[in-house]
Amino acid sequence: MLPPRGRPQPNRPKDGVRINQEIRVPQVRLIDPRGAQVGIVDIQRALQMAKEAELDLVEVSPNANPPVCRIIDYGKFRFEQTKKQKAAKAHQQSTGQVKEIKLHFQTASNDYRYRMVQAQEFLTKGFKVKVIVQFKGREISRMEFGHRLIDQAKEDLSPYGDIEELKLEKCFAISVSPRKGGIKKKETLKPDEQAKHETEQKAAGEAFNNGGDPNSQRGQNA
Question: Three-state DSSP class for 92?
Answer without folding.
Answer: helix
